[in-house]
């Protein structure tokens, strides 16, 4: 075997061994507030982690590198976005930081006026937040079509590496009790976003927060009927599991094709938007008061351990690995809900793009 090939083989073997020594992010489980300073401090492969997980009043500023996010209600949630202005998700996915609507989590605050519409859905198995945003106000390039962030990634350390999400949505009314969302997905880009966190005690958290459909975006991973300019909280049925649809009386599973085959130009089914109920409409000025007073000042530190979390009055009950081939499987009979198109979504975010290594295939036609 040529020497150069041997070196390549050894490097590949070393990377494989290193990956095997790292505990997957989804296996790192914590009871709030007992989190380490860094969940992923290992200087291996893509590591160490860019920011930190112990976030408190000393880290609460517009340069905070806190990587512990909270998703509690329509007026209290966080998104993942870059730490440095004019960045793309593809280039920074491993190092995104938490941007939140409240100034009680030790993070950066989403600036006032950035959110242009938000829909919060509480379902039996997950919380879903979709919306429209001026992404330049959270350090994203104006034309960045973005991509998917999730707790997996090529090395299973997550995008961002070490990023944690907690929620009080499953605490039976105790707004000061937080549960770690092990499985979640967050698409950012095209001045829109969708975020889904799955109840770890639910029926299928890995299924509802599936991360293998990174190329087909929000409309297939987090279908909604949200509207720009509207701020709405609803209860909702579960969606069909991402990738599943009914054809000929049988449930069929769609797998997106590998990136090597080029852009996805067709998807064999129309997304089903779940039925919603008990909807309440808000004014953005009433629910994002912290954002309206945000200033970009101070520098981030991570000392102390006093964590601040205010109870919310409106609390409601990356590099993903693509599977090879565009195949499908059939299972037992299942009913299909009435389907709707999602006309409000920017086409590029509906399509989705892959992070890890670059901005890749976009759905050209839906």
From TrEMBL:
Transmembrane segments: 344-365
UniProt keyword terms in alphabetical order: Membrane, Signal, Transmembrane, Transmembrane helix
Signal sequence extent: 1-19
Keyword Transmembrane helix: yes
Domain of life where this protein originates: Eukaryota
Annotated protein name in UniProt: Macrofage activating glycoprotein
Species annotation: Rhizoctonia solani
């Amino acid at each position: 075997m040529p020497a150069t090939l041997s070196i390549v083989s050894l490097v590949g073997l070393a990377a494989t061994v290193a990956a095997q020594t790292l505990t997957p992010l989804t296996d790192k489980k914590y009871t709030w507030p007992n989190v380490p300073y860094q969940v992923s401090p290992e200087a291996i492969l893509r590591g160490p982690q860019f920011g930190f997980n112990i976030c408190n009043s000393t880290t609460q500023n517009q340069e905070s590198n806190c990587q512990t996010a909270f998703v509690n209600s329509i007026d209290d949630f966080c998104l993942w976005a870059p730490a440095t202005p004019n960045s793309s998700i593809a280039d920074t996915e491993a190092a995104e930081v938490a941007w939140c609507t409240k100034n009680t989590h030790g993070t950066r605050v989403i600036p006032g006026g950035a959110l242009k519409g938000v829909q919060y859905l509480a379902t039996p198995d997950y919380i879903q937040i979709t919306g429209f945003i001026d992404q330049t106000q959270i350090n994203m390039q104006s034309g960045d079509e973005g991509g998917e962030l999730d707790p997996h990634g090529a090395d299973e350390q997550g995008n961002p590496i070490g990023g944690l999400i907690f929620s009080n949505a499953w605490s039976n009314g105790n707004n000061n009790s937080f549960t770690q969302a092990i499985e979640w997905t967050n698409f950012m880009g095209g001045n829109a976003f969708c975020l889904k966190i799955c109840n770890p005690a639910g029926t299928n958290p890995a299924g509802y927060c599936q991360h293998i459909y990174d190329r087909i975006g929000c409309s297939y991973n987090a279908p909604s009927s949200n509207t720009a300019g509207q701020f709405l909280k609803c209860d909702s049925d579960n969606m069909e599991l991402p990738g599943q649809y009914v054809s000929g009386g049988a449930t069929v599973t769609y797998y997106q094709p590998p990136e090597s085959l080029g852009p996805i130009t067709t998807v064999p089914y129309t997304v089903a938007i779940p039925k919603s109920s008990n909807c309440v409409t808000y004014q953005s000025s009433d629910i994002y008061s912290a954002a309206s007073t945000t200033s970009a000042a101070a520098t981030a530190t991570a000392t102390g351990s006093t964590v601040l979390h205010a109870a919310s009055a409106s609390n409601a009950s990356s590099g993903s690995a693509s599977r090879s081939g565009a195949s499908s499987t059939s299972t037992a009979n299942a009913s299909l809900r009435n389907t709707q198109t999602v006309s409000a979504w920017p086409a590029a975010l509906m399509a989705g793009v892959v992070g890890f290594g670059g901005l890749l295939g976009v759905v050209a036609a839906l």
